[in-house]
Specification:
Elements (H helix, E strand, L loop, with lengths): L3 E7 L6 H10 L4 E7 L6 H11 L3 E5 L6 H14 L4 E4 L11 H5 L7 E5 L6 E3 L3 H18 L11 E4 H4 L13 H12 L4 E5 L1 E3 L10 H16 L3
Parallel strand pairs: 1-2, 1-4, 2-3, 5-8, 6-9
Antiparallel strand pairs: 4-7, 5-7
């Protein structure tokens, strides 16, 4: 039976976290939920600790400050590797990545190095995704395809499952970006390492509770990352 780690980075997700964890647990899958909290002022970390005290499948990594999405993922990857899990799945805490799609993603884990829950394949959809965010997302993907030769349709998707043995081939120490641009850079190196990638359709639901963490600075950093990767040597 596959052992899967689910990495959930959190920062001010007190309105969502408990409901999300409960829905994941209801799937009754062999998972370890790894919550990486960046010292959330709204006490998300305390909620995570309470859940961990109630469920042995839940582990919590507390960090002292808001250190960024990329390093949160790396902390989760490191935990999963040390725990000798088979796969690690990453997802947002705000229900934009709905737990109901986890079984569909896991179904392909044995056959591919990476499985991505994608908005931009046949039958992939978005809900409550305004024109501004659609433009940003589509633009980032366009530049990733055009400048970097990326072949994945949804390069900025964070709903991914990695085979941990395959992840060991990826030079994580070379990844310099730390916000949402980490997702593009991570996938760039995965493609360079010839990892096999499968995209499956999901419905991406823009957050209903809490505040979006996509800022103009994140958008700028994503574009800067794409151009940096174009001119650096692998």
């Amino acid at each position: 039976m596959l052992m899967i780690g689910i990495v959930i980075p959190t920062y001010n997700e007190s309105e969502n976290l408990e409901n999300l964890v409960n829905q994941i647990l209801k799937l009754d899958l062999p998972v370890t939920i790894i919550i990486v909290d960046d010292n959330s002022p709204d006490r998300t970390g305390e909620i995570a600790d309470r859940l961990a005290a109630s469920y042995s499948q839940i582990k919590v990594i507390h960090r002292q400050a808001k250190l960024g999405l990329g390093t949160a993922y790396k902390a989760g990857f490191d935990f999963a590797l040390k725990a000798k899990l088979d796969h690690v799945l990453t997802m947002d805490a705000d229900f934009s990545h709905h737990p109901s799609f986890i079984p569909d993603i896991i179904k392909y884990c044995d056959s591919y190095d990476i499985v991505i829950g994608s908005r931009y394949v046949e039958n992939g959809t978005t809900t409550n995704f305004g024109l501004h965010r659609k433009f940003i997302s589509r633009s980032a993907n366009f530049f990733a395809h055009w400048i970097l030769g990326m072949t994945v349709n949804d390069c900025t998707a964070g709903f991914r499952c990695y085979k941990l043995d395959s992840l060991k081939k990826v030079p994580l120490d070379k990844i310099r970006s730390n916000g949402y641009s980490f997702l593009v850079e991570m996938l760039y190196y995965c493609q360079k390492c010839d990892l096999s990638i499968k995209e499956i359709p999901i419905n991406f639901i823009a957050r209903e509770q809490g505040l979006s963490k996509i800022s103009k600075k994140e958008i700028f950093n994503a574009l800067k990352t794409i151009f940096r990767l174009k001119w650096q040597h692998f």
